[in-house]
Design brief:
The structure holds 3 protein chains of 3 kinds.
Chain A lengths: L1 H33 L6 H18 L6 H23 L9 H23 L15 E4 L2 E4 H23 L1 H11 L1 H6 L4 H23 L9 H16 L4 H21 L6 H13 L10
Antiparallel strand pairs in A: 1-2
Chain B lengths: L7 H6 L4 H17 L2 H24 L10 H16 L5 H23 L4 H21 L1 H4 L17 H24 L1 H11 L1 H6 L4 H27 L9 H14 L6 H15 L7 H15 L3 H14 L2 H19 L2 H4 L2
Helix pairs in contact in B: 2-8, 3-8, 3-11, 3-12, 3-13, 4-5, 4-11, 5-6, 5-11, 8-9, 8-11, 9-11, 12-13, 12-15
Chain C lengths: L2 H24 L8 E7 L6 H20 L8 E7 L4 H14 L4 E4 L3 H14 L3 E3 L16 E3 L4 H13 L5 E7 L2 H17 L4 E8 L7 H9 L4 E5 L3 H13 L1 H4 L2 E4 L4 H4 L11 E4 L9 H14 L5 H20 L4 H8 L3 E4 L2 E5 L6 E2 L2 E7 L8 E8 L1 H4 L3 H7 L3
Parallel strand pairs in C: 1-2, 1-3, 3-4, 4-5, 6-7, 6-8, 8-9, 9-10
Antiparallel strand pairs in C: 10-14, 11-12, 12-13, 14-15
Helix pairs in contact in C: 2-12, 3-4, 5-6, 12-13
Classes of the chains: A mainly alpha, B mainly alpha, C alpha/beta.
Chain lengths: 292, 347, 410
């Protein structure tokens, strides 16, 4: 029983880490390629969750409705991200980081009020797809099937990102631009193109994280807050711009959180912060190689 | 190469000539006579937030340090006053002196860890460490009152009316700004700005970069503590959200909005944000969207902040030909610097 | 004149002009002598769903009152301010309402911290302040005073009602869990305090607290299950409540261990989950739109439903009775004088959807009945409702006046 409980705690911590990883991967990719600390990444995540809710409820009780939401909601978010990038952000790449933070924070304020106008203040909720409802019993302890599903999705996203950055032309260019953008530009390649693609991917991942978290929590205004600061801590822990670093950081964050509950429940909240601080003190530029 | 970061006009705004400085004090001192009482209160609140933003700008604008969790020091100052009066029962003057001390020490402690890191890494470590303090304040119900905060703090009765509180705050803020101004102009301040512009070069010529940064952080934290104590004077309440990262972001926005290359810019930024927050709610529920649009426009059309922009505008209109040239040179030097962004020059 | 001086004067002129226009605009005199209520509450962010419900109830009552001619020959009007769940902002806005809008009294908020801060300000300004959603018992308890009132239930009342409901069942080893903020702890403390009074043999098997807004509660809930307590009490509300119910449903929590939560049977908590909320959860609330089935309640529900397209939740009920308390008190006071208003409000009884409700004179707390029950599906609704409803009258669940005086240190 105790062992089963530990295992379930671990599994749930890992599945939480997968959501964190997906969102952080998007953030760190944008940080790496575009050098933009995107403060409205959290808003994109929230829009992903609300869009998933709207799409799933529009399609009604069809068993595939939530799956459709998982596929389409991130696309909606990616398009919103692309629109902001093409119209505004693209003109600002030469600016200092603080100006970019100011700009993306301004977008956050606008997007969050737009979400309030579009969806209202009510709490929203959707269920997992029918096959993933209920829980499996692992060594006498219930673990929701949906969390097991998330455990599978996380590595798939990581694999997808690896394939994208190593096997596609635009992905390789993005990787190159992350290291040396002047060099890429000198080769006669339109860097703007690469940047737009990279931002699209980053926004897509934020939306995917939002859509995937929707069935396991209540969808509310303000859900962008927590994820934003967590994602920023994770990508810093992992090394800015490093996707594998984001994976490591997310695992560290998710596991310290869920194991902290076992050790010192009243102060479980401090463990992820402590972990981040300790990592940064030992490795001032994150766990893995950073392009920053 | 000498980098001219701050255009010549910002010096005039900082009060190079004494009549201007005198006016800057005289006008706020006379305003309560004609203002409705609520606006006197609002001005006092603006001074408190402005002092907080200006203390941040000492490290952000002059030091080029990514101080992302400045609110912690403000909150520590406010709680130092609140706790030493309500829990320890110490007299108010002691409590008010304790606030900057506690904040300064917190700044020294957090800064000591953070100065090993650079830019975003620095900022995120500060958020992680600052959040630990925030958790303590939020959790330690028996001492701090948890998320309810502490209310009705018995400060000396002569400060409980808005008018005396206003003049007290004005006096402390003016003194603090004079001290800050001297710090910025002192050899220390000049070195700090040199570190901001090129840390490597400073290192090579034998400047202890980290020590300078640590001192700057400690000083900034101390003034944030003063602002925290002044908040207690004005509102007689403290809340854990005063240590939350959201407020830090807001203060950062005040600096950038007002103009972080100028001395008084953060005060202007604070005035805009505080006024918008307390009065725009009268007309619309979506006032944060207005602020958002304002910020986006600002980044595009006046990246040097409101005060920086006004300074530039006035310089263009009012400066005689000779100084126009001089000003343009200063500006183009600044523009040149921006082509190769500050990103690569720091490390 | 030097260039420096010129530019400075231009600057000062510009800033002064902008500032003075806002001041002048704000100084327009009040034309009609209405009774003006200033409302500070959270109208954006997660709690807005409750604040808007309260405001709707208040508006519904006001339109009836004003249609019937208002009070003292005046209409009752209101202005709202969105504090965005920030007590600093809320406090500034309360000042603005009092000093600038010249409101006759203040009403608000869902945020206990803001309520306490404004309460302290109201005492200093000698202006009445009616709290309508915030549930901290210290508002009218230890920190209560002449100028603060509450028209909603508080943690002491809810905890005592739920303790009485649960004490009649055979559970002895309790586990207490909840969201780690003021409300979560306050409601848990109250529940446990009264539980031990009613049933001294109960023991505390353990406690779990998670941070507000924690999205994934499965680790916490499975940890509780593995400890096998007889029953569990959750101290949670709002969005956190929806999360707890959702997680309970996902791991079949309520089937494994009996569970008690204040507001678990409440419409605002159960509506977002539809038929997917867990059944068999013990809960309490001070208002149910389908119970009691009196004509007063039914006509309130009908009017609310036709105005806003949804049945009223408990905040709407609080907003509704707040308006009637205000109108009745002014009528009885016979003038807009604040002290006479307070005097009239003390001990005032008004007719409400749940029967006559008194504003207790000793602590300024509305004497509200509490309803307890167990969640269950119903053929009539597409969300869960309470079954086996037990009603506790106000005096059964409220601290006595002597206890209040003791808490205030008198």
């Amino acid at each position: 029983m105790v062992l089963g409980f530990l295992a379930s705690q671990l599994l749930v911590g890992l599945s939480r880490a997968m959501i964190l990883f997906i969102v952080s991967a998007g953030l760190t990719f944008v940080l790496g390629v575009l050098r933009v600390p995107n403060v409205f990444h959290g808003s994109l995540y929230m829009i992903g969750a609300f869009s998933a809710f709207s799409i799933a409820t529009q399609l009604g009780h069809h068993p595939a409705s939530v799956w459709v939401a998982f596929l389409t909601a991130p696309l909606v978010v990616a398009l919103i991200g692309l629109a902001v990038e093409r119209t505004l952000l693209t003109r600002l790449y030469q600016r200092e980081h603080l100006m970019l933070i100011l700009f993306t924070f301004g977008v956050t304020l606008v997007l969050n009020d737009l979400v309030k106008l579009a969806w209202g203040a009510d709490y929203r909720s959707i269920l997992p797809p029918p096959v993933l409802q209920g829980s499996a019993v692992l060594m006498g302890v219930p673990v929701p099937r949906y969390n097991l599903f998330l455990l599978a999705v996380g590595p798939l996203v990581a694999l997808g990102m690896w394939l994208f950055t190593h096997r596609t032309r635009i992905g390789k260019l993005a990787r190159a631009a992350a290291v040396d953008r002047e060099m890429v530009a000198l080769l006669g390649i339109d860097v703007n193109h690469v940047f737009a693609g990279a931002f699209l991917v980053g926004a897509y991942l934020a939306g995917l994280g939002g859509a995937l978290v929707a069935p396991s929590t209540s969808i509310t205004l303000g859900m962008d807050h927590t994820i934003l600061i967590e994602a920023f801590l994770i990508v810093t822990t992992g090394g800015l711009g490093n996707i594998w670093g984001a994976l490591l950081g997310a695992l560290l964050f998710g596991l310290t959180q869920s194991l902290g509950v076992l050790i010192w429940p009243q102060f479980a909240i401090v463990f992820p912060y402590l972990a981040t601080a300790s990592v940064l003190l030992v490795r001032p530029r994150g766990l893995l190689r950073s392009v920053w | 190469m000498v980098k001219v970061r701050r255009p010549a006009t910002s010096e005039t705004l900082a009060g190079r000539t004494w009549p201007i400085g005198f006016l800057l004090i005289l006008i706020p001192a006379l305003l309560p006579a004609i203002l409705p009482i609520f606006y006197t209160y609002l001005l006092a609140l603006i001074f408190v937030m402005g002092l907080l933003a200006m203390s941040l700008n000492l490290v952000l604008g002059y030091g080029g340090i990514y101080q992302f969790h400045h609110a912690v020091f403000y909150g520590v100052g406010a709680y130092a006053v609140a706790l030493s009066i309500t829990r320890a029962g110490w007299p108010a003057p002691v409590a008010f002196l304790l606030a900057p001390l506690a904040s300064g020490l917190t700044g020294l402690f957090i800064g000591w860890f953070c100065v090993r890191l650079t830019r975003l890494y620095f900022g995120m470590l500060q958020i992680a460490l600052g959040s630990l303090l925030w958790v303590i304040v939020l959790r330690w119900y028996s001492i701090t009152g948890g998320d309810n905060g502490i209310h009705d703090i018995p400060i000396p009765s002569f400060l409980r009316q808005i008018l005396p509180a206003y003049y007290f705050i004005l006096a402390v803020v003016v003194i603090s700004l004079l001290v800050l101004y001297h710090i910025v102009r002192s050899p220390f301040g000049v070195t700090l700005q040199a570190i901001r512009d090129n840390a490597q070069r400073c290192q090579v010529v034998g400047v202890n970069v980290r020590l300078h940064q640590l001192v700057a952080i400690t000083l900034a934290a101390t003034f944030a503590g003063v602002a925290g104590a002044l908040y207690v004077v004005l509102e007689r309440s403290v809340f854990p959200s005063m240590l939350f990262w959201v407020l830090s972001l807001e203060v950062l926005v005040m600096c950038l909005l007002g103009g972080w290359y100028t001395f008084l810019g953060p005060m202007v930024g604070a005035a805009i944000v505080v006024t918008l927050r307390t009065t725009a709610g009268r007309y619309t529920e979506n006032w944060t969207m207005i602020l958002g649009i304002l910020l986006i426009l600002l980044v595009f059309f006046m990246p040097e902040g409101v005060l920086g922009f006004l300074g530039k505008l006035i310089a263009r209109v009012a400066l005689p030909q000779g100084r126009q040239q001089e000003f343009k040179r200063a500006e183009s030097a600044q523009a040149e610097e921006k082509v190769i962004p500050g990103r690569s020059s720091h490390e | 004149m030097s260039d420096v001086r010129k530019s400075q004067i231009l600057m000062v002129f510009l800033v002064g002009f902008i500032f003075s226009t806002t001041v002048v605009q704000a100084q327009m005199p009040r034309l009609v002598l209405d009774i003006k209520v200033g409302i500070v509450d959270t109208y954006s962010g997660p709690p807005a769903v409750f604040s808007n419900d309260a405001l709707n109830g208040f508006k519904l009552a006001l339109s009836d009152i004003n249609k019937a001619g208002g009070v003292l020959g005046s209409r009752i009007t209101f202005v709202t301010r969105d504090e965005k769940f920030s007590p600093e902002t809320g406090l500034s806005m309360a000042r603005e309402l009092v000093l600038q809008e010249k409101v006759d009294l203040l009403v608000g908020t869902i945020n206990s911290a803001t309520a306490l801060a404004i309460s302290a300000y109201a005492r200093e300004q000698k202006i009445p302040f009616i709290v309508w959603i915030a549930k901290s018992e210290v508002i009218t308890g230890a920190k209560g005073h002449r100028y603060v009132f509450s028209t909603g239930e508080n943690t002491a009342m809810a905890g005592k009602a739920l303790a009485q409901f649960a004490a009649s069942r055979p559970y002895r080893r309790w586990w207490i869990a909840g969201e780690d903020y003021e409300y979560g702890h306050a409601i848990a403390d109250a529940f446990w305090r009264y539980m031990k009074q009613l049933k001294p043999e109960v023991t505390l098997a353990g406690q779990t607290w998670w941070k507000t807004g924690e999205p994934d509660l499965i680790p916490y809930l499975t940890a509780i299950l593995s400890a096998r307590p007889d029953a569990v009490f959750f101290g949670t509300g709002g969005a956190g409540m929806a999360n707890v119910l959702k997680t309970m449903r996902a791991i079949g929590f309520a089937e494994r261990v009996p569970t008690a939560i204040h507001t678990a049977i409440d419409y605002t908590a159960l509506k977002p989950l539809g038929l997917n909320a867990p059944e068999g959860v013990m809960g309490t609330t001070d208002y149910l739109f389908y119970y009691p089935e009196t004509s007063d309640n039914q006509s309130f529900v009908r009017a609310f439903q036709s105005a806003y397209g949804t049945p009223p939740g408990f905040p709407a009920f609080h907003g509704y009775i707040t308006a009637y308390f205000i109108a009745e008190a002014f009528r009885r006071a016979g003038s807009l004088d604040r002290e006479r208003f307070i005097h009239a409000l003390e001990g005032l009884r008004v007719r409400t959807p749940v029967g006559m409700v008194e504003m207790r004179a000793c602590d300024h707390q509305a004497v509200l009945p509490m309803f307890a029950g167990v969640t269950q599906k119903s053929p009539k609704f597409d969300f869960l409702v309470a079954s086996n409803i037990v009603t506790f009258r106000g005096p059964q669940v409220m601290p006595t006046c002597a206890e209040i005086q003791h808490a205030r240190g008198q």
